[in-house]
Amino acid sequence: MIKFSRLAFAASIALPVPLTAQVVAEQTAQLRDAALGDSLALVIVDAPTTEIGPRKAGSEAEARARDWAVAKLKALGFANVRIDGFDIANWERGAASAEVIAPFPQSLTITALGNSGATPANGLQAEVIGFDSLAALQAADPASVKGKILFVTHRMTPAQDGSPYRTVGDIRRLGPSIASGLGAAAILIRSIGTDSHRTPHTGWQDWKNGARPIPAAALANPDADQLERMLKRGQPVTIALKVSAKMAGRRPSGNVIAEIPGRDPMAGIVLVGGHLDSWDLGTGAIDDAAGLAITTAAAKRIMDAGQPLRTIRVVWFGSEENGVLGGNDYRDRHKGEKHQLLAESDFGADRVWRFQTAIADAALPRMKPLAEALAPLGIVQGGRNGDASGSDISVIQQEGMPVIALGQDGTRYFDIHHTADDTLDKIDPAQLRQNVAAWTALLSIAANDPVDYGPVAGKK
Amino acid sequence: MIKFSRLAFAASIALPVPLTAQVVAEQTAQLRDAALGDSLALVIVDAPTTEIGPRKAGSEAEARARDWAVAKLKALGFANVRIDGFDIANWERGAASAEVIAPFPQSLTITALGNSGATPANGLQAEVIGFDSLAALQAADPASVKGKILFVTHRMTPAQDGSPYRTVGDIRRLGPSIASGLGAAAILIRSIGTDSHRTPHTGWQDWKNGARPIPAAALANPDADQLERMLKRGQPVTIALKVSAKMAGRRPSGNVIAEIPGRDPMAGIVLVGGHLDSWDLGTGAIDDAAGLAITTAAAKRIMDAGQPLRTIRVVWFGSEENGVLGGNDYRDRHKGEKHQLLAESDFGADRVWRFQTAIADAALPRMKPLAEALAPLGIVQGGRNGDASGSDISVIQQEGMPVIALGQDGTRYFDIHHTADDTLDKIDPAQLRQNVAAWTALLSIAANDPVDYGPVAGKK
User: Count of CB atoms within 10 A of residue B394's CB?
Assistant: First the structure.
């Protein structure tokens, strides 16, 4: 049973409600409900996935995507559409193959991890040593693993909030550098994913502390199962590995920026967006054409409803997948500008189920109208959380800018994330529309609220 | 409300029940229930999928699988373990790739269909013409499709009894010959499958009536979606296709046969089994190591329970995937032998939900004890049906031999069938055990029933 205290009730009715806030709430509800019938987001997500396909950072396809983006955002009526260009170090995937030589000859399905080193041109052949955790790898005796192919497996279960990716993902982020430091010939990891398909999960990793690059690849989950079973048989397992990945010069990349200018240029910028680049294995539908589509369709609805108080800046970041280079460029280039809010959609296209905030204490009461506007969509207010909802804004956020994260249901996200299976069929149009409605409500409030959301204490 | 007529009730209690039948029923129930705790089937399905992996007809891996099979069946205590060897025409897959050249440059994921022809070594480039059905392809004007790449799409929905495969599968079985007859440069079909993964479905097709081999490949379903969307944009779509498949000599294959000799050599043979070869993309877990495991684990339980009346012959067919060559060899080689029953498990490892019969009219009342033994497993008696439950016995069945088909739930079978995703993780151990229990019940009855099940009228 829930008890309402008399005091709480009295306080609630005693709050002064400015007329403007009430008008905003009514407008927000109308815009939100209309957005449930959105068709623009599906058009936006379809175009880059169908007409461009994979858009790897620094690729000619990413450049075509920028051209398409500029034309599309202009056609939608956005102002100040431009590209913040920058150069990136270009990593090429090349080819990757793994053949069990003994005792059970057969091919395993792998994909190179981003920034992987290469084998010699004719490959390398070595015994496999298995580890069931990153901690076990870290504790390995260098003498026993030198020159070997190290295999790190794990268990990753689906979770609505996607949180297992933080810890399990460290196998990809840190494992290769640790293996390199141990003198390993190469590292194979179980895909950082929750599916059971022969579609391995790639993903970026940096060589930490000057670690020498070695071949680093992910096995598809069924292949990791297979290698585990082979190792459990007890005989030495030898693999012939070929990885032809390489760093190859510098390439142009960039962030595409578009705006809805606010009525008050001093009221600060509300930044929303996603990332335009994708991994090269799939067509980048859930990661992250969906994010572009959701935030831009919502912004377009606010634009059509009349000029907002604050400027809404839509950013389609480039080169997110290879080290959040677009986010870093934005942070450095726009650090002097007053951002009232950062919000990114980069966790697929399944429904928003909660929102979390990283805003100034004084602004917290301003979340009540947002909570009320989102509740009819089945969205609850979560705790305060410093986490951003996207990598790009997480690096910008470090400048103390406030963030609101609309948390999507990630239960099936890591089935698909960074695989060839990231294709348009994975988008559920009804859930995509629910996202647009949630973002429309967020923008309706945040772009018209005259109160400062930041700066956020505890962030430099 | 269900009404029981007095007559039916009286008839039911008036039936003479021979003591032997009652003993068989009790034994059957005990054996069936014990089989629900089976562990042997999982061991048998694991071995070839893990230790051998893909076992393409005629390959060195299939030969290793036969060696393993002989050793395993002998170790289990089967008698007369031997190989019926035969040679097959060897089709090599080679490599296959498809690149959209214009208007939306990107790669599509394809796999060659079995028996595909090749492109020139440096590929071919042609416009794509789309068809939404086999009928539309058949109706095409040769003048408009000559030299083009023909693309046939379709919709295939999952079905418990797998029946859509019969009609939709004709796109694979007949489409290439039709396209060849039309003068097409090549044919691409939407995968004959119900999944949405980048794992295209291969499968055999014969060149009908001397059709000239052309390159024939299947697009993964998300890639077929992609190509459909491109064609709907209205601009000509050009693809660069490379397929290096070829026929290359003859290779040894064979059926592995093992027996539990019956007490009465004149009582006829009960043949059960599955096929040992698999397609080369996956490790052949559901297609068809599962069938070997289920039928052999059940036969082993009957063996351990005491010598049956009839001989149980376990056949692990070779070269099923490339035209049912093992089934054909068996039919020709063993046509003079008295077979009391044929039953094959070749539809995955999900639970049996019904059984169907193709037996002599006079033997139909003998199905009552079987129906009673299977009912506690959730299995119902379906109609009389000439269909076999496996391709191998379907060609043998044409000799008029009786068949009982234990029908498995095929709802997810065509998600995986003939893809790289046919791996051990797709086997649900609990459903595998239910299969063993069903087959144990079937064998307990069929191998001890003194009545003839055949010959089946209407079959030559």
Answer: 19
Residue A111 β-bridge partners: A218
For residues A308 and A445, give the distance between their C-alpha atoms in angstroms, rounded to a whole number: 10
pLDDT at B399: 75
Annotated catalytic, B228? no
Euclidean distance between CA atoms B379 and A101, whole angstroms: 44
Which of chain B's residues have a Cβ under 8 Å away from the Cβ of A50? 104, 226, 229-230, 233
Which pLDDT tens digit goes with each residue over A127-154? 999 999 999 999 999 999 999 999 999 9
Q: Which residues are CB-contacts of B242 (< 8 A; sequence separation ≥ 6)?
A: B95, B96, B97, B98, B119, B122, B123, B124
| CA A5 – CA A2 distance, rounded (Å) | 10
Structure tokens at A369: 């109208």
Residues with Cβ within 8 Å of A3's Cβ and at least 6 positions away in sequence, in order, are none
Closest CA to A335 of A265, A276, A401: A401
Please tell me which of the candidates A103, A104, A421 has its beta carbon nearest to residue B197.
A421
d(CA B152, CA B134) in angstroms, rounded, equals 7
Reduce the DSSP state of residue B287 to 3 states and report it.
Answer: helix
Rounded to an integer, what distance in angstroms lies between the CA atom of residue B193 and that of residue B158?
8
In 3-state terms, what secondary structure has residue B390?
coil
Residue A110 burial (CB count, 10 A)? 25
* CA-to-CA separations, A292 to A74, A317, A321, A344, in angstroms, rounded: 15, 9, 15, 9
Residue among A50, A51, A197 whose CB faces B199 most closely: A197
Mean pLDDT split into 10-residue runs, chain B, 460 residues: 38 47 87 98 98 98 98 98 98 98 98 98 98 98 98 96 95 98 98 98 97 98 98 98 97 98 96 98 98 98 97 98 97 94 97 95 93 97 76 87 95 98 98 98 96 76
Of A347, A414, A352, A419, give the one whose Cα is nearest residue A158.
A414
What gap in Å lies between CA A350 and CA A82, rounded to an integer?
30
> What ipTM does this complex have?
0.93
Which of B194, B226, B418 is most worth mutating to test chain A (most A CB atoms within 10 A of its CB)? B226
Judged by DSSP in three states, B361 sits in: helix
Alpha helices in A210-324 (DSSP H): 221-232, 290-304
User: Which of B199, B229, B424 has the CB atom closest to A198's CB atom?
Assistant: B199
* Phi and psi, residue A348, nearest 5°: 95, -155
**Res A91: pLDDT:** 98
Contact status, residue B328 vs residue B391, Cβ threshold 8 Å: no
Q: CA A277 to CA A322: how far, in whole Å?
A: 9
| B103 contacts in chain A (CB < 8 Å) | 51
- The DSSP secondary-structure symbol of B211 reads P
E strands, B345-402, in order:
352-358, 380-384
User: Nearest to residue B437, comparing CAs of B132, B166, B35?
Assistant: B35
Most B CBs within 10 A among A43, A153, A194, A197, hence the mutation to make, goes to: A197
Please spell the DSSP secondary structure of B86-142, one letter per residue: EEEEEEE---EEEEEEESS-EEE-EEEPBT-----TT-EEEEEEEESSHHHHHT--H
Q: Please give the span between the terminal C-alpha atoms of chain B, in angstroms, as a whole number.
A: 44
**Residue located via tokens 């006079």:** B362
Query: Per the structure block, which two tokens stand in for B35?
Result: 């089989």
Sheet arrangement for strand B246-260: B79-92, B246-260, B311-317, B269-275, B339-344, B403-408, B352-358, B380-384
State whether B425 and A225 contact (CB < 8 Å).
Answer: yes
Report pTM: 0.93
Q: Which residue has the tokens 């109706």?
A: B139
Q: In what order do the strands lie in the sheet with B186-190?
A: B106-108, B96-102, B238-243, B124-131, B149-152, B186-190, B216-219, B110-112
